Structures are given as structure tokens and as C-alpha cells.
Amino acid sequence: MVIEAARAKINLALHVTGQRADGYHLLDSLVTFADFGDELAIRPSAQDRFEITGRFAETLSADADNLVTRARDGLRGLAEELGYETCPVDITLTKSLPLSSGIGGGSADAAATLRGLMRLWNLDVPRDRLARLCLSLGADVPMCLESSPLIARGIGEDIEPLATLPSFFILLVNPLKPVSTPQIFRLLTSKTNRPLPPFDPAQSDWLDYLAGLRNDLQEPAQRLLSDIGECLQQLEESGAKVCRMSGSGATCFGLYRDEMALERAALTLEQAKPQWYVRAGRTLEGNAS
Known about the structure:
The active site is at residues 9, 140. This protein has 9 helices and 10 strands.
């Protein structure tokens, strides 16, 4: 059996820098991953089987179109094209991340499926073929396949590993209310914003640098869902040094200087907002596996 982590993706910053003729938006995003998320267990089986367990299992149907089964079928087709034999698999997804929440849950699940099946089936897939498969599954899947700190440009496919990014104490909060990503992009007032500035270690530390960045989707998302503003206010009042929305929301994060401040904030928000998703942890360092 292969166990594969599908870590939560965190957009520490997301700058919208343009829009292609086909409608896709161009991004410049600083991305890291949490040390928690969903988990996939994959084992050989007599026939393909897919099961979902965990806190948010009821929000997905194992019988409906799903990124996990699409990733499985896409990789199997690619493997057969390359002359590999593949066996049927039993996949169990433990769904611990809320759906459609800006932290790459479905994309992380698809990427973890690809990583796990490549191990189980012992595949050596050319990087360009794998990249095309990832992008066909979703713009976030290529970065989730890396699952380590990076800068993503283009529509998410142009990836630059970020070996220097340190680990942060992070708190995620989500009001467990959906927001529409297409509608958020339609509400953008400017689609040609400045890209990420370079980090200068002589001028600031990482938290100071991150505080000066932004998520261009945050303001239109707050117009659609006022709870996002409340999440950010709660995080700021809890002592977070950086507060921001991740992706297209509605998950927001706070970064803290030390573990004690993180634990205190997590306890405060869990007690104040028991109906919210609240999760504390660490982010991965650059080059972490």
C-alpha cells in the first residue's frame, strides 16, 4: 500500500498581472504548503475502487466525476501509451480539508494520486507529458504536484522552486461558506497589477516582506462574502503578523512569530467560532519533501 499526503496549498501572495486572449488570468503567486491536509491510501485491487472518508467526506461523492479518479484514469492512459502495464487500484481519500476553499484541496488530491500511482506502478513519465496531464486536470495541479515552496507564474504552470523560503507558524480559518471563483475574477477592478517584488534579505525578514504583498482576489471575494472580512479581523486581533486570504477563498491564514502565539490564537478562534474550520500547523521549508 502507498500512502500519499495531499498537503494544503497556501497562496502567501497572489498578484493578478494580466489576462490571456482565451480568458485565463495570468498570476504571480508565492505558494507554500502546510504540514497537514488530505491523505490518500492506494493499494492494488481486483478492480478499481474509490472511497472517501474523513471530516468532509459528505461534501463529495465517490461515484461522481472527481479529480482523483480523473487523475487515475489520465495517468493510466498515459502509462499505457508509454508501454507500461498498470493494475486496478483501491483508493481511499481521507478528506480533511474543506471543499472549494482556496487551499487546493481537489488539486492536491489529484497531484497526490499521480505521485502515489507513479510509485505503485513504478512509472518513469517524461516531465513534459506529466506537466500536460497535470494542467489538463487544473491550473493548481502542477504546483500541488511539487508540494514544496515555489513561485507560480502564467496560469500556474510556470513554476520556480523557492529553496530559501523558511517554515512559518500558520493558522487557517474558513467560515465554511462557498464563494464562486469565476465571479470573483469577474469582479476584479484591475487585471494588470504589479508582479511580486524580489525579496531582499538585507532589507527585511520574510514576515516583513510578506506583509507588503497582497492577494488581488481578496477584495472582490470580501464583496461576495463578508465572512472573509471577519476571518481576517479575527486573525489580526489574535496577534498574527501577516493576515491574508489564500487563493480565491474563503480560507484565510495568519502567520505568527512563535508557536505559543499560534496555539493561543488557535484556541481563541476555536472557542469563539466553533462552526468554522480552524487548523494550526507549520508550513514547509524550501526543498522540503
